[in-house]
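We modelled the chain as a single entity of 301 amino acids. Its sequence is:
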Amino acid sequence: MISNLKHITIFTCLFMAFSNSIGQTKEKLELNRGIDSYNNGDYGTAQDNFENAYEANNQYNGALYNAANSAYRSGDFEKATEYYEQYAGTLENKKDKAKAYHNLGNVFLKRFSGSSQNENPEEQKKSSDYLKNSIEAYKNSLRNNPKDEDTRYNLSYALSKLKQQQQQENKDQKEGKDEDEKKDEDKKEENKEKEENEDKKDGDKSEEEKEGDKDKKEGDKDKKEGEGDKEDKQNEDKDKEGDQPKPGDKNKGEEKEIEGKMSKGQIKKDLDAVNEDEKNILLKIAKQKGKKKGDNNTKDW
């Protein structure tokens, strides 16, 4: 945690104070006011004073460094980052650069600690970037002053936090992967159960349909048989109607019957004709027999 870090090196530019402000430039006045405010713990006012001093004369890079220290103390880490980076860019002295990058590393590590517990993905990425930036700042400090033990300690601490973060990310990824696989398995199982239920439902429905088809078939059969019986009955009725005279045929039949009826005189006449024919036939037969008999008597064997 940040409490384990070494204290930030405070760089202040002290100037001789006069009993009155006569002869002092604006940047010197603001610089001295800022030092007083900083020593009194009024870091917000000190930051304003140092900013005013640097604005009045940008050759006062010491005022810029002090403004960065004040911003850090007041919790304005964004401004502190900006001022430390700007200050380091104005320096050629390696020891001064080392101090600037050391403090810059502390600012990034402080920002990492304040955002590392946020579960928002964007904030987590920022947190990871802060930690990596702090490591890079400590490395830059050691490049300018390799013997600084405070910077080595802070770098080692930042690297251990990075390792923990990577291990946690790997764990989260593995758990996320396992969870995704479990969700996939659960989804497959759910789909399988759903398909089985649908198959079972379809099977039950098929049995019902089969029963329905069977009943329908039997119903069609009964209907067909009923229609056959009806047809047979219709044919039977038709046959009966054929045996009976059709409307209008009754009188015609009666006319035929009347026409076929003979009188008694006609019947006697017909019988006499038959008897006469029969009598002639008998005479003819008798003649033939007599002829044969006479032939037998005259023949000499």
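As a brief sanity check on the tokenised model: Residues 10-23, 240-260, 296-301 have pLDDT under 50 and may be disordered. The chain has nine helices and no strands.
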